[in-house]
Amino acid sequence: xxxxxxxxxxxxxxxxxxxxxxxxxxxxxxxxxxxxxxxxxxxxxxxxxxxxxxxxxxxxxxxxxxxxxxxxxxxxxxxxxxxxxxxxxxxxxxxxxxxxxxxxxxxxxxxxxxxxxxxxxxxxxx
Length: 126
Fold this sequence. Notes:
The chain has 5 helices and 3 strands, in the order ααββααβα. By secondary structure, it is α+β, with helices and mostly antiparallel strands. Strands 1-2-3 form a 3-stranded mixed beta sheet. The mean pLDDT is 83.
């Protein structure tokens, strides 16, 4: 939970850049989603440390989050924090066909199928 708070305190640009973070042996490990972000975050290590220090001092639940060093690395894994679940929906379309056509075939089974198609078009239009 504290890691989510830490990422939320960063700007929107950094939130998209960071896949995940963790602390191990007083070292903050920051995984980025793209190698280009690695260089930018390396230049902003002091910012990351100060945000982490502020979070640990203001939030009692996150008081244990302390780091002396920051290591930024690229990870091929995507962030679970930023992933949005795709809504599995069925696209609905309005019926474009018209049912006002004449059935001019002599074959009775084919005429029945055309009539069923006509009824389906009428049903789908409403």
